[in-house]
Amino acid sequence: MTDAKDERRPAGELEASVMAVLWAADAPRTPGQVQLSLGAGLARTTVTTILTRLHDKGVVERHRQGRGYAYYPVQDAHGLTARRMHSELDRDADRETVLARFVAQLSPDDERVLRDLLEPGER
């Protein structure tokens, strides 16, 4: 028999699912609309909490709609990934070492892409 703790989702999975719903939407979505799109048996209050946390992180914006809010993403998925990369880089005082190790671990294809992005005139 499994207990409720074992059935919890991995960290960030719910946030990622909510973001996927917002990115797929053609307009801002209320927590109830997001809940229906997820179809995972989540309580509306859980979805509201996730959206509030995403808003507090600056990942989504919101505007008043009725008595609540409708939410929409600030950036697309690629922009959010880039933002996370910047956030991780900002956490370490030795940026040069972090960047050097990041570049050293790139695949040859990723290294070529990065080189092309940094030196666009030398292709």
Question: What can you tell me about this protein's structure?
Answer:
The protein has 123 residues and is mainly α. It is 55% helix and 10% strand. It is built from 6 helices and 2 strands. The protein has a two-stranded antiparallel ribbon with strand order 1-2. The radius of gyration is 19 Å and the shape is elongated.
The arrangement of helices and strands along the chain is: HHHEEHHH
**Overall pLDDT metric:** 88
Query: Main beta sheet: strand number and arrangement?
Result: 2 strands, antiparallel
Order of strands across the main sheet: 1-2
Number of strands: 2
Topology of this structure?
Layout: H1 13-24, H2 31-38, H3 44-56, E1 60-65, E2 68-73, H4 77-90, H5 95-104, H6 108-118
Antiparallel strand pairs: 1-2
Primary descriptors:
6 helices; two-stranded antiparallel ribbon; mainly alpha; 123 residues; single chain
Question: Summed up, what is this model?
Answer:
The chain is mostly helical. It has six helices and two strands, in the order H-H-H-E-E-H-H-H.
